[in-house]
Amino acid sequence: MSWKGQGDWEEEWGECYAGKRQPALFVINLNSGKVHAVKGIAKSLSVGQVVWAPPVESIDQYLVFVGWSADPRKLGIKYCYNRPCALYAVKVPLYKSEAAQSDLKSMEELTVVNLTQSISSAFFPQFSPDGKFIVFLSAKASVDSGVHSATDSLHRIDWPTDGKLCSSTKIIDVIPVVNCAEDGQFPGLYCSSFLSKPWLSDGCTMILSSYWRSCQVILSVNVLSGEVLRISTADSGFSWNVLTLDGDNIIAVCSSPIDVPQIKYGCLEDKATNTTAWHWLNVSSPIFKCSEKVTSLLSHLQFGITQIPVKDVSDCLTKGAAKSFEAIFVSSKVNNAPDPLIVVLHGGPHSVSLSSFSKSLAFLSSLGFSLLIVNYRGSLGFGEEALQSLPGKIGSQDVNDVLTAIDHVIEKGLVNPSKITVLGGSHGGFLTTHLIGQAPDKFVAAAARNPVCNLSSMVATTDIPDWCYVESYGSKGKTIFTEAPSAEHLTHFYSKSPILHISKVKAPTIFLLGAQDLRVPVSGGLQYARALKERGVETKIILFPNDIHAIERPQSDFESFLNIGVWFKKYCK
Known about the structure:
The protein is of the alpha+beta class. It has helices spanning 140-145, 292-299, 319-322, 359-366, 384-388, 397-411, 427-438, 455-458, 465-473, 476-480, 487-495, 522-534, 554-571; strands spanning 26-28, 35-37, 45-52, 61-69, 85-92, 112-114, 123-127, 133-138, 153-158, 172-175, 205-212, 215-222, 228-230, 239-246, 249-256, 259-268, 278-283, 301-308, 325-332, 341-345, 370-375, 420-425, 445-449, 509-514, 539-544. The chain has two domains: 13-94 and 108-177, no CATH class; 292-572, 3-Layer(aba) Sandwich (Rossmann fold). Helix 4 packs parallel to helix 13 (554-571).
């Protein structure tokens, strides 16, 4: 009989990465089948997004990769772009003489070079087609401020043709962080990834997708001049996402809250005259065809993106924070009497609800509900000043923005004020439970998916305790973050939490909770739900034993929204 000791406990990257080993870098020789570990990389670095540098004759080839540091410890990294990271290069010597000897030399003494020491974040490295430079995304606005996601920036590094790298490589700004854009102008870069081959044939123009207020759009970016053009259709309110390039043409998909995804083929209208106008053709696809019943239900709906003026603008607000935010309003075309309303709130809080198709929200619309999908200040896509206005004011500014949006559509006679419900997950659940406590007479029912209900208990159990500090305290939170919160800190967290207002809640509430959630552990939602029951508020809890924070396993997602629909119909008769 034998047994194996457990060894030292190792930190993990939290949600979605539990039980997964530290990523490492290997090179495989396809001719010999041999696998070689790349040496010289510090054990404190987690490696990812590896690309080969262009080969140079008689010079050993480099690998370029992103490294995330585990110092002082690993915190949740899923959806969290505030984790410092850098681009590194490591030389991989190869034999060139005999094919039979085509194998890797010893890698024991290789030096790893940090290419981006002067910037706190660098990821998604992409070489230009001619190999003369690398472009990369940066979330430095997120890392430097502490918020989990913020406005991106795009940068360029010239790649040395002689293969001599140094850590003082000059970083050239291509698209800087946009703090506050003029109305209708480029609001900043919000890009979650690059295509594997994003280049047009000129070798300097990238095609990528980015958030633009409540829409996703397709941009062309000249990485030498910094020129940014919105090339997807701007007047429809649809959201667009680039799928791939076909030479100098684009294959994309577009949709809206009431239009299922449609494949589009884009080409420049007149290449000879260097026009920047793009022409988009429909591409028929059997994949996206719907049943006649679904098509009929969607055909009776309409949507629009509504500008919501900020209420009670004060002199202490930045220009960007004082600008209007947006809400997507979905309703029936035939509206003899206003339908019941579902207020839909995204999580994050630094995320965004896009004007794209969602089967779950389309289902709720088909039940006879109007939808008010609010992108409160702090959402992505509206510039950095508006985003940074929220940390330190959660539970007040965001709550007031949602109430302002609701009052806006009530004043326009678009909804029945006696039949308003609210739905949100994560920080959207935080807002949902805040709203039914702070405005208890406004809502007839609520649904919360893995909601943040009590920051003072969450800070000890979540994989992102720093989030509790930054969102509760603002910029100060990054510097005072500690693994041992003081009594003063815990009191402050409680004062920002929905549970503070639980004695005022009247709305029947359904909770959808993922038992494996490391981001907002299930104990917080259960505590809040039990406290509601204790006070006589009608409460329903559905626990998904195998789901994490997102509750996105197909069966769980289906069951979740089916129950939400039934719950809301029950209280909106």
